[in-house]
Amino acid sequence: MKDQINKPSSSAGMSRIDGRLKVTGAARYSAEFTPAGMVYGVLVGSTITKGTIRAIDTKTAERAPGVLKVITYLNSPKIAGYQVEAGKPEPAKGTYKLFYNNKILFNGQPIAVVVADTFERALFAASLVKAQYSADGHHTNLIDNTAKAFAAEGDGTTKRGTEDAWKTAPVKLEQEYVIPSEVHSPMELHAIIAKWDAEDKLTVWTKTQGVQDTRDGIATIFKLPKENIQVNSKFVGGAFGSALQVWPHEVAAILAAKVVKRPVKLLLARADMFTSVGYRPYTWQKIGIGATKDGKLVGITHHAIGQTSTYEDFNEGPIGVSRTTYACPNVNTNYKIAALDIGSPTWMRGPGEATGAFALESALDELSYQLEMDPVELRLKNYAETEPESGKPYSSKYLNEAYKLGAEGIGWNNRKSKPASAIKDGWLVGYGMGGGMFGAYRDKAAARAIVTDNGILTLQTAVSDIGPGTGTAMVAIAAEVMGIPAERIRFEMGDSSLPQAPSQGGSATTATVGSAVFQACTDLKESFQKLIGNGGTDHPDYAAVLKKHNLPKLEATAASSGGTERDKYAMYSWSVHYIKVLVHPSTGVVKIDKAVCVADSGHIVSPKTARSQIVGGAIGGIGMALMEEMVIDDRYGKIVNSNFADYHVPVNADIPQIEAIFVNKPDPYINPMGAKGMGEIALIGMAAAVANAVYNATGKRVRELPITPDKLI
Ligand code: MOS
């Protein structure tokens, strides 16, 4: 691909364009708009886990002060998109249908929405809604229900070479690994404000990773023309996959607004964030792995069983890592899901790969000790020069450099190869590493670039920014192409009426939307060159050119495709995490002393936000390793730690110095910037790196996350 931006960006040190708005509170999130006449919705959740509603008493709630309406399945208007065509059977599986019938499928399932003139009155009235149920027996424990697991569509079950070849290897092991359910836990709660502008015209402000996908989702559910729906999400206070779909609370607010003929705001409580917007599924995995005495992999067998709900088959394919990360002649993988009486899981940062990499990168570490070989050397010994499954060449892969940079950064040569043999100031010291990979994707997108005669460049595209600093990266790309300083560039997004953009997910935004911004700016620059004629400079004084030609502005809208290079090349981003831990021998407390995370994610478009992206993902990985665990009391099928006192996420005191290092070499094929994704690889492999460091420190191998002190003493 031509037109590479290989040189460091002129805006290398650029800070977040919206940083000031965010830290001063001037940024307005979805719950912070106040359309005239707005009222408040509060959901009532089921207190049983499985069964049917026999009766709901809404009378007391309806008589409470300020209450406008209580909506349940009994009086809910029919939702067009839920209805089954006459004569057709009810589909067996699908997304959850709000207020559809009297069936209870999980604990906390919304059974009513109460609408009142203030939030407090709605909340109080919600406490007065009483349901009577017929409860059925329920199942919420994956390990007790693995026998019920079934193969999901497109589950990644494959066989390469000989099945179970690892068993024939001279050095081998077979182990089981478990990760619990984890909850996204962004700072900003999910919230929506729904306002009907006419009988069939709707505006919403909602937390979403994609304003246009949310628009399309609402259009399907309510059978509205897409163009009648306006979705706004200007700022998003974190979303790690939880805002990639239209959830029941959004349907409830839209429905309620229609019924009461007023705009309705519905904000989830923190506890609802555990039941209502998905989570990373509890997953059991078993790996068999074998190698020759000099460390060449002979075979890997990777089986996994994850949980899903009874109404939807969620499948995140955690076994993919074993097929595509290392050179290995014999690989067979199998993935199944078991339906439990709990809300559906969903995508969560590094979906599939984060889970699979915990097992694979732990198993490799175990193998390295059996081989008495350095874990980095073991990985280099099995380095894949081409994509192991397809045989395609990589579009770019500098993982070997990443291994080296990280080893230097952490001081890997201080690592003792014998576990539990280093102690300092009463703490056991250990070093560990783990790798991550994720497909480097690029999708279709469009962008508009407008230069006005005051010399300001405005960029427009319908992307969301869930935190990585999308606007900052796009401004950096535009600054580079146009030669306009970043301070003179505006970025407009989070509005479904802007040029087409996909949801922010799968680490693809910079590659995808960046390509469109690059193209729009390139086209716009060409229009200026045409105006100027021969002899123009590469970066003219745009304002002067416009004035000279009596034009108020010049604009270009460009679309970019997913590209065809993917047919020829395997595209991945790579990471490696190095960890130094201290473990207290008598209390089992684990302190992360230092983390070094190296990313091979192509050219770094925006170094400051890229660093934040890696640090944020690393913190997520540390949480996964040491703290995060959704706990269900299986007797009642209820989540018992749905708050931040009991569901632990890392806080500042838990996080040491994290060094983010970038190989920073452009990928020649993925897009004009040479930029690959980094959102997912920031987390993938981190939990194993921590577990491996804990083993090195203590000699204790923890195969079930999180690594809490009780597992080490
Ligand atoms: Mo992510 S799980 O692609 O938001």
UniProtKB/TrEMBL annotation:
Ranges for domain Aldehyde oxidase/xanthine dehydrogenase a/b hammerhead: 24-137
Pfam families associated with the record: Ald_Xan_dh_C, MoCoBD_1, MoCoBD_2
Segment forming the signal sequence: none
GO molecular function, one term: oxidoreductase activity
Name this polypeptide is given: Xanthine dehydrogenase YagR molybdenum-binding subunit
